[in-house]
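Whether sequence alone determines local backbone shape is best considered at the level of individual chains. When preparing material for the folding task, we compiled for one chain both its residues and its backbone structure tokens. No coordinates are needed to read the tokens, only the vocabulary itself. For completeness, the protein is quoted in full, as a sequence line and a line of structure tokens:
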Amino acid sequence: MKFSTISWYRGPMRAFGFLSFGHYGGSPAQGGISARQMLHDAMDIAVGADEIGVNGAYFRVHHFAQQSASPMPLLSAVAARTQRIEVGTGVIDMRYENPLYLAEEAAALDHIADARVALGVSRGSPEPAERGWEAFGYTGSEDPRGADIAREKFAVFLDAIRGEGMARAAERPYGAPVSPGQDLRIEPHSPDLIRRIWWGAGSRESAEGVGTMGLNLMSSTLLTEATGAQFGDLQAEQIERYRAAFRAAGHTHAPRVSVSRSVFPILTEQDRLLFGMRPGAEADQVGIIDGHRSTFGRTYAGEPDQLIAQLQADAAVQAADTLMLTIPSQAGVDLNLHILRSFAEHVAPALGWRPNAEGPVQGDPVS
């Protein structure tokens, strides 16, 4: 099934970045790496990707697992060592966050990165801990998945980054030039940061909510829906609904949209040995996640001409301005830069890619 595009859609995909899950652990003799090595590799991959012209360096956030967490130190380090690449998350789990402290960190990161930020947040993905956010001190959720407190915290976070008053000055304010009783905003403040906030949506209905709020859309690596339609077509409908809701809400700025895929160009015999797929691996996968029948996107692996044709036929890739390539980060810096360089040189130009040297990625404006 194909979905029509609305009048203000410009397309096609014109930016790509890498999405790292930040896995570590396991036996060093079998290729396992430490948390320290994972973080240093992440920085080195981002620096190399910046030089290639890749548009974004994005990192997953998982708690109680041997994967990336507490993203702000890593993003700040990457921003300080790079010049053009966008730095961000896919996604921060709001169940685990103090919204005001996150707003402070996000504004500081935005200043360090000179506005090269794409901060993805959401309710969070399935995790190994049972109600793990409660161990962080965030109790009171009546939802077994914690969606209620995630929504409440996100609303506070948005108010804070918009610069709204979050506290009142004392009767005798100490250490700041403010008046007694004055509304105080979170500091530092980055006035345009709201335009660089993304919500990770896992369904068509949640995408409509993102559009109504006027935020950027980060379409999830899985959708909590399984209608029989292909994953790319489900995402394309999700994106169309998002854009329709965005326009209906009266927003007039140009929003951003991203999707993620695993894509491995095969150029050498080593590529074929590493990334050649087993029968059935090229199909969408359907399974149960958090009690929902869900659809997972397929993996693309092939020679450049084959990948170009497949990605041009992927409705969601064509509907988004940014494609995030999920990478095997634990496989080391050299292999991951080889994957990114192969995609940049042999696949991305045919999809409409514009290297980061041409300037920041722009969303599709409302017409």
